[in-house]
Design a protein that fits this description.
alpha/beta, VC0802-like, 453 residues, 13 helices, 42% helix, binds aspartic acid, Carbamate kinase, 8-stranded mixed β-sheet, binds magnesium ion, 16 strands
Amino acid sequence: MIVMKFGGTSIKSTDDIHRIINIIRQHRDEMPVVVISAFSQVTNRLEKIAALSAMKQTDSAHNTARELFEQHEQFADALLSPQRKKNFLDEANVYKEQLQQLIDGLSLVGEVTARTIDQFSSYGERLGSLLFTLIMQESDLPAELIGVEKYLYTSGEYSRAVPLFDEVQNSIQKTFQPVLSNRCIPVTPGFIGITKRGIWTTMGRESSDYTASLIGTYLAVKEEQLWKEVEGIRTADPVIFNSTMPVEKLSYREALELANLGAKVLHSRTILPVIETGIPIRVLSSRVQPSGQTFITADTEDTGVKSITCKKDIDLIRISVPYHANGDIQLAHLNQFIRTLPVGIHLTLQVGSETVVLIDSKNATDDLIDSLKRYGSVEHITGTALVGIVGEDIGRIPDYGIKFVEALKGIQKGVLLSGASPRSICAVVPDSDSQNLVEKLHREYFVSHHATG
Ligand code: ASP
Ligand code: MG
């Protein structure tokens, strides 16, 4: 058995779909389970529809919803027989009506909650997986759609829901095994889940990778394959600059560190389920065939820098806690407060009375800054990016740090953050310097290294 996850970003045209169908066909004998996320741009559009509705821009919301259904119908027109197209439309029209009601409801209330956003987002994965299952059947692949309501029960922490692991494990085995035993191919949506009360949830943007990893772990598959637009994981984000190179192998810990430091290619939770079981993960491209790839396993054979990360839209908050007269510093209350923050913190570092917290800019609200002022004086720096290098052991070997610091030369304002992790070194620099720094680091650790052999 294997799990194959296909990202929605890579489903833009009928050619993309033909290519993916071929890839699945080639792996037919390995008993694949297929995980599909929403088609290209669909989740973004659904979030936009929710936002437009809440701003009472009802007509624009309805128009965007109409475009979204048309996008799916065009695929159905091109790729399905009249009968299967009818099957698709029967169900899609129910979704369409529900979405229209949601838009009208939200326009009345004028506000949007995480729970409502999840409800909106769920349509992307439900439509995409339904359509994709029918297209597989049309292509003579015995696909069977398994909805998450049969197995992916989660907590009610909307937009970052946590699976109810024991129940999910049981239900996955109960629902997927019989389908596989019948030599059929289970197809299921990623990203979404459902509470025990039947309310849709999501596990965070881009979390279809995580769905695939949960299924793979509980079915004890031989390998989890994440098929993306790009050819595996690269030495830096190819969107930032274009002379990156493929990374052939990574350890679980390195991949986790990369995801935590902001590499978008892998959802950060993906690695967690496989750490215990040792199931390998392969990241490949469905667009470039045959594809380069990255193989992620428990092994940590070689040291050295594997990849450079860059996460933008980060704020740095520095809290200086006052000393007591006897020289003590009281950090317990501050630490307690930071621990209970519900929002994604990227990094916390403490030395003496100084604490640095890195947080997504959108979460660095005035309320948060005011709360932190209870613990000491607060410096809030916006417009920064977190740039880092990742690789097994590099945090333990000073040479890597020396090169990193050299690359920071000339940057007027930067904060070096290092020491806690054995497998990364990073710095917070002004956004405007980040691209330059990534290129410099890349030259330093990869190009010159390769050129001199
Ligand atoms: N469709 C969702 C998103 O765009 C989930 C995913 O792609 O993994 O975030
Ligand atoms: Mg995606």
